[in-house]
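seq as requested:
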Amino acid sequence: MNKTLKNKRRKVRQPKSRIRLFGDPILKVVCEPVEASESVSEIIRDMMYILFNNKNGVGLAANQIGYTKRVIIVKEFGYWQVLINPVVTEERGETIETEGCLSYPNVYKEIKRVGNVKVQYENDQRLFRAPIWFSIKASRIVQHEIDHLNGMCKVGME
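struct tokens:
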């Protein structure tokens, strides 16, 4: 093998964090907004690593892996979307479906949520996005992850 090519291979860095499970106090923390001057690239990198290595995950909030910043990642139409400081600006409809959660393994619960949400956020390039409507499935995931950012999880509630 060419020595130059061998040296250019990148090693995949394991994240510093792991998925926090029920009972961990960080899951009850209300996350802080990400400031304009702050870098969240390490948080996003750790979140993506965990999601890529977990076959059941369709979304993740930063506090689920130990960071108290308002960052979520959601899978929609097979693509991962990073939402920094997400805010729901409009809602319509209603739906009841079964949800699970990576922080509450093997726990599933029927949960009533808004059918569609319009969300304003910054993307992973820190570009401000005009509010966009998410699909019904992604709307549910966004709401679930924003709940985590607000220190709660309906799947784990009695």
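Confidence is low (pLDDT under 50) at residues 1-12.
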